[in-house]
Amino acid sequence: MMKIDPKNKQRDIREFDIARLLKSKRAMTEYLNQVINEGDDAELAAALGHIARAKGISVTSRSSGVKR
Q1: Strand runs (DSSP E) across the chain, as ranges?
Q2: Which of 58, 54, 56, 55 is nearest to 20 (CA)?
Q3: pLDDT, tens digit, for every residue of 16-54?
Q4: pTM of the predicted model as reported, rounded to 2 decimal places
Q5: Angle, alpha carbons 28-29-31 (nearest 5°)
Q6: Which residues pair with 17 in a beta bridge?
Q7: Contact 55, 49 (CB under 8 A)
């Protein structure tokens, strides 16, 4: 939700979060394939984090066997 600052009447814009757009397995797969094709290891690590956040950390930890 955008808020308008009464002092300068500018909108408070939310920071972009790719995880909000990764709602399906297909979207996650396409995103990950694109990042892999670019060949940047740092971007790959970031993409895996975005996908984990999109799926939910608890679901990811359960399926991978990692415990908190």
Answers
A1: 3-4, 11-12
A2: 54
A3: 888 888 988 999 999 999 999 999 999 999 999 999 999
A4: 0.64
A5: 65
A6: none
A7: no
